[in-house]
């Protein structure tokens, strides 16, 4: 977190951002890739909401054949990825268009490469996928939170229920379309859930030991946009297209520093551990844990937290530094409560006796996030964080 930093790559896919860009451009983009047959990847909820029709129509206009694979599920289960990859392989598709949230995007990233394997059923995803180039991809987000559409990381759940992570530049889509009309009718619960995920991306990147001048610019923008607009889109999102636009842009960019800095810090580690055992959504898990992680880390660089408070609309000019930093935690808790996110682990049915298992998962599966954290975290520290959050 200095003016100078170690060298770093910033990988950003081509992004088409604007209202109406799906209906006006999806078909023409597919045609530019020379596509003859497209597989649209999505989930039943997106189909029911009528959002897939907004892609079908421009493809039909360009005379491009397509089919729909609508079996995506939360947390990108391995069996769904393999099923999608087999469909891609058997159907002779030359382009994938993913429409949905983070799990759909991750399914598409992995399946588009896995489909090039000789045996989709038997190949080891973790070993095969990261080093291969797959089918071209267009990603269209329907939430404003995960940022999966814009990153070179992918997460899935293996057959044993373990969340796995892989990274590859080949995961980047050829084009990402960010169209706020695709999020306009998003239910308040999902809006809140994904919005808090995006805010967590921005805050964790901003507080990373590797933060630099470029990631700071993006993170600050995302924190402010989310703080200014998340309540509005949760309360009456369909009536506030400008706020939906701001959230879509903020979410699409918030995870780019996250990946540039080579991974999240402690909140995502705690959240992933909680999510695996408690079976809550990703947004809920990180939203509950974030204020406690901020308090845990606040002494490392209180100036950063004071700046977060300021970006979130708190008045901190006349306060001692530590008090100003604490305002960031207060602002986060107010925002989370205002949009009806769960505040405690017991609110989502977690039992206190589950905490040792959460800690075990953290220190076996999610050590990257522990090691990336700006303050050393022991098993005892993690236990206290979970107990305080309970």
Notes on the structure:
- It is a single chain.
- The chain folds into 2 domains: 168 residues, 3-Layer(aba) Sandwich (Rossmann fold); 202 residues, Dehydroquinate synthase-like, alpha domain (Up-down Bundle).
- Helix 1 crosses helix 3, helix 7 runs antiparallel to helix 8 and helix 10 packs across helix 14.
- By secondary structure, the protein is α/β, with parallel strands linked by helices.
- It is globular and about 65 Å long.
- Helix content is 52%, strand content 10%.
- Strand 6 and strand 7 form a beta hairpin.
- The two termini are 32 Å apart.
- The relative contact order is 0.11.
- The strands form 2 sheets. Strands 1-8-5-4-2-3 form a 6-stranded parallel beta sheet, sandwiched between helices. A two-stranded antiparallel ribbon has the order 6-7.
- It contains 16 helices and 8 strands.
């Amino acid at each position: 977190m200095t003016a100078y930093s170690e060298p770093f790559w910033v990988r950003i896919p081509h992004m088409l951002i604007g209202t109406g860009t799906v209906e006006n451009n999806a078909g023409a983009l597919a045609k530019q890739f020379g596509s003859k047959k497209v597989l649209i990847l999505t989930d039943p909820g997106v189909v029911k909401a009528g959002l897939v029709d907004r892609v079908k129509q421009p493809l039909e206009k360009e005379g491009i054949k397509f089919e729909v694979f609508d079996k995506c599920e939360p947390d990108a289960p391995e069996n769904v990825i393999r099923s999608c990859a087999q469909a891609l392989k058997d159907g002779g598709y030359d382009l994938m268009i993913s429409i949905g949230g983070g799990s759909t995007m991750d399914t598409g990233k992995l399946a588009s490469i896995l489909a090039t394997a000789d045996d989709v059923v038997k190949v080891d995803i973790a070993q095969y996928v990261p080093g291969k180039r797959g089918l071209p991809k267009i990603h269209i987000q329907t939430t404003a939170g995960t940022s999966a559409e814009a990153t070179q990381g992918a997460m899935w759940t293996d057959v044993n229920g373990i969340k796995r992570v892989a990274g590859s530049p080949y995961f980047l889509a050829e084009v990402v379309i960010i169209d706020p009309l695709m999020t306009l009718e998003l239910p308040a619960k999902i809006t809140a859930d994904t919005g808090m995920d995006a805010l967590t991306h921005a805050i964790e990147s901003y507080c990373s030991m590797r933060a630099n001048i470029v990631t700071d610019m993006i993170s600050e923008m995302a924190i402010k946009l989310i703080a200014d607009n998340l309540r509005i889109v949760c309360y009456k999102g369909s009536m506030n297209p400008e706020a939906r636009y701001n959230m879509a842009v903020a979410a699409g960019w918030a995870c780019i520093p996250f990946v540039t800095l080579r991974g999240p810090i402690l909140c995502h580690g705690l959240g992933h551990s909680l999510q695996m055992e408690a079976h809550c959504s990703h947004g809920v898990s990180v939203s509950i844990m974030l204020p406690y992680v901020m308090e845990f880390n606040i002494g490392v660089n209180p100036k950063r937290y004071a700046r977060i408070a300021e970006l979130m609309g708190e008045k901190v000019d006349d306060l001692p530094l530590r008090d100003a930093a604490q305002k960031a935690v207060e602002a986060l808790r107010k925002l989370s409560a205002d949009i009806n996110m769960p505040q405690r682990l017991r609110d989502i049915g977690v039992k206190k006796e589950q905490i040792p298992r959460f800690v075990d998962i953290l220190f076996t599966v999610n050590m990257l996030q522990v090691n990336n954290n700006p303050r050393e975290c022991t098993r005892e520290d993690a236990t206290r964080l979970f107990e305080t959050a309970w």
